[in-house]
Amino acid sequence: VTDQAFVTLATNDVYCQGALVLGQSLRNHMTSRKLAVLTTPEVSSGMRSILHSVFDEVVEVDALDSADSVRLALMQRPELGVTFTKLHCWTLTHYSKCVFMDADTLVLCNVDELFDREEFSAAPDSGWPDCFNSGVFVFRPSLKTYNLLLRFAAEHGSFDGGDQGLLNSFFSNWATADIGKHLPFLYNLSSSAVYTYIPAFNHFGRDAKVVHFLGATKPWNYKYNPQTKTVMQDGTTSGSFHQLPFLALWWNIYSASVLPLLEKLQKVESESEEYKNEVAHSISELTIHFKPEESSPEDERRKWEEGRIDYRGKDAFERIKKKLDAFLH
Hints:
Layout: E1 4-10, H1 13-28, E2 34-39, H2 45-54, E3 57-60, H3 69-74, E4 97-101, E5 105-107, E6 121-124, E7 132-139, H4 143-156, H5 163-170, E8 189-190, H6 198-204, E9 210-212, E10 223-225, E11 230-233, E12 236-237, H7 243-289, H8 297-305, H9 317-328
Parallel strand pairs: 1-2, 1-4, 2-3, 8-9
Antiparallel strand pairs: 4-7, 5-9, 6-7, 10-11, 11-12
């Protein structure tokens, strides 16, 4: 299906790692839709080349920031202001319908059925279920909607300083208008919220479709032992009984599919730097080797007599005038 796509966002090279794991998890589960990633200028050219190996489309957009330090401070997440950049996803008008997924989500099975839903479909947020979580949502690209969102952001801002507060205010009837636009929590399962209702997780958790690594600590902040396939942080096993399997799954994909791409890039960049140094050294050697010898006064006089005058170089009028002035002085 060429006119529908899963879309994600990476605002720097670190978040690109999450986007790559997400993209690879969608590939692993044989999605029939296109994969697109929005990037900002902060993403390096090398990382963009790796993104091209997993995503069908890599689109660079300008960063948008709420700059709402007060509300962001309430969540102790100042970095979330840049999530306003997510609004650019509505500009992808060559697609008829898309599913946006944050770069810190992970697909556990094929979820193409999400495209049967309409805008604006999302799952409830575990912290306040009358609000949706903006980590996974179904939308229809539209420049009209994009401009309305920008105007709404300018006039009303966001109650949490990030994209989630803005989108909940904009799509304000989500909680009451149409239950068909309420995605089951299994499509956006918070990997940390499962502990608040463990019996429910034990009963429904095996059917989870998308896991979302909410919070300031992301999977790439942990350490991983590829031999034992265990997740570590600060030298000790971190996480709890339910979170560890999700973290291990993320790291399995990272180590198998993403790390080799990063290592290849590192090798190419290293070889390229060595090549640059070799070329610079060779040019330096050639310059020294072919440095022209100083002409004798007799050679200079003979060139003048033969009409071979370097008007733009050493025989330029300004240089001759300078010599005469020095002589006369």
